[in-house]
Design goal:
266 residues; Ankyrin_rpt-contain_sf; elongated; ANK repeat; mainly alpha
Length: 266
């Protein structure tokens, strides 16, 4: 008769053998090629080969560097082949126009050092970089470009100069900077507007006063017979209307509006 204790030992021994057998079988299965393939898949992949940048991407890297005012990246982009003269009519013009629009003085300086044309024309702005800076009230760029010799009276195809643009924004500082560098005051655009017409239309009394002090014609008429006073009345610029009237300004077209204005003041 087998002792119970010995029987238990036999059972335990059988279990160990069975366990060892299962372990060996599992081990054998794990070492099969299928599992080896899975192990290979878990390994980190090597870095993909970088493709060369396209011309468009290189050009865009230059514009991005200009927008970020990053001089070193501007130089790198040019070394890679970016064109500092390329005009993009849909996105802020040339790189220098972009620098002018965004007020990036350091970028503008870097572009000029690399050979950018300070008076380049852009279809996007129909103007020079100075015109773009004046239009956007970027006084620091206006000052920088003027100090570097930008053409102060370079006009767009319709005859508007940087002085027109600065006056149309009522930007006293830009107007002063332009005048200090010899900008013309009584310059007439294709439709007949002078900087004084522009300033009156936006109601900028400080700019109106400056322009008159520099000799602008108070009652100059445009191609439609409008004086600066007419412009101020058309856009309902009450302060400019009062100032121009005190200086002797008159209307040529809006007599009815002027009479109504007189009645309202009484």
């Amino acid at each position: 008769m087998i002792c119970i204790r010995r029987l238990l030992c036999i059972i335990d021994s059988s279990n160990v053998s069975l366990t060892n057998c299962c372990f060996q079988e599992t081990k054998a299965r794990i070492s099969t090629p299928a599992f080896e393939d899975l192990e290979q898949q878990d390994k980190p992949l090597s870095e993909p080969v970088k493709r060369p940048l396209t011309k468009g991407e290189i050009q865009e890297s230059l514009r991005s560097a200009v927008d970020n005012n990053d001089v070193e990246e501007i130089k790198k982009a040019v070394q890679k082949g970016a064109d500092i003269h390329k005009d993009n009519p849909e996105v802020s013009g040339t790189p220098l126009h972009l620098a002018a629009e965004r007020g990036r003085v350091e970028a503008a300086a870097a572009l000029l050092e690399l050979g950018a044309d300070i008076d380049s024309f852009s279809a996007a702005w129909a103007s020079s970089p100075l015109g773009a800076a004046a239009w956007c009230d970027r006084c620091e760029v206006v000052r920088f470009l003027l100090d570097r010799g930008a053409a102060v009276d370079m006009a767009d195809p319709d005859g508007h100069t940087p002085m027109h643009f600065a006056a149309s924004n009522g930007c006293v500082e830009c107007v002063r900077l332009l005048r200090d560098h010899g900008a013309a005051v009584q310059v007439v655009a294709a439709e007949g507007w002078t900087p004084l017409h522009e300033a009156a239309a936006v109601g900028s009394v400080p700019v109106v006063e400056l322009l008159l002090g520099w000799g602008a014609q108070l009652n100059a008429v445009d191609c439609f017979g409008q004086t600066p006073m007419d412009c101020a009345i058309s856009y309902k610029r009450a302060a400019a209307i009062e100032f121009l009237k005190d200086k002797g300004g008159f209307c040529t077209l809006d007599k009815k509006k002027e009479s109504e204005l007189d009645k309202s003041e009484k």
